[in-house]
UniProtKB/TrEMBL annotation:
InterPro entries the record matches: Formyl_transf_N, Formyl_transf_N_sf, GART
Species of the source: Lichenibacterium minor
Residues of the active site: H108 (proton donor)
This protein's UniProt keywords: Purine biosynthesis, Transferase
Name the record gives this protein: Phosphoribosylglycinamide formyltransferase
Length: 203
């Protein structure tokens, strides 16, 4: 399934997805990397990998929805069927969420529903949690609230700084995001109402 990866920055999750989708037999093909930032480092990584890279600046649009309609036009023009938000630091408008409901997933650096929003690692340390992690979820209009597809947990260690914890979580993100994409692209998981449902093994 033709997949677009949306980024705003360095794109390490995008890189992990590009590597995974290049493997023979993977059920999704990354055909576009798109950014809201023309200077996103990940765009060059995509081009070097032979994947089309495009960007539109949200500052050129009068509203969130106007920008999202322009993004949607780019996706539709390329026959995109699945969208992966990978460090895409934009709140997706309800309009775009509805258009792509069940076909847009994202990764969040925390064990949702805990720590929605930003600065998750510093907040996890402030709260003194012992287990932290990452979540891949369907994108819905409410921020960081969509049905969960995959999660990974990491220990919080004594003396952890936000950067040390972030690095430990990021390593897991690079493992679970490709797996989650494969599950969604292959139809092993689908969105049913408010739940990500695994297809019961019929074997
Ligand atoms: C990751 O921690 C991801 O969970 C969050 O922002 C960061 C993006 O990193 N959405 P990268 O651009 O994928 O390296």
């Amino acid at each position: 399934r033709r997949t677009a990866i949306l980024i705003s920055g360095r794109g390490s999750n995008m890189e992990a997805l590009l590597r995974a989708t290049a493997a023979p037999g993977f059920p999704a093909e990354a055909v576009l990397v798109f950014s809201n930032r023309v200077d996103a480092g990940g765009l060059d990584i995509a081009r070097a990998a032979g994947v089309e890279a495009a960007s539109l600046s949200h500052r050129d649009y009068p509203s969130r929805e106007a920008f999202d309609r322009a993004v949607d036009a780019v996706l539709v023009a390329r026959g995109i069927d699945l969208v992966c938000l990978a460090g895409f630091m934009r709140v997706v408008s309800p309009w775009l969420c509805e258009r792509w409901l069940g076909r847009m997933i994202s990764i969040h650096p925390a064990l949702l529903p805990a720590f929605k929003g930003l600065d998750t690692h510093a907040r996890a340390l402030d709260e003194g949690v012992k287990i932290h992690g990452a979540s891949v979820h369907y994108v819905v209009p409410e921020l960081d609230a969509g049905p969960i597809i995959a999660q990974a947990a990491v220990p919080v260690l004594d003396g952890d700084t936000p950067d040390a914890l972030a690095a430990r979580v990021l390593r897991q993100e690079h493992i679970i995001y490709p797996r989650a994409l494969a599950m969604v692209a292959s139809g092993r998981v689908r969105l049913e109402g408010a739940r990500a449902v695994s297809r019961l093994d019929t074997s």
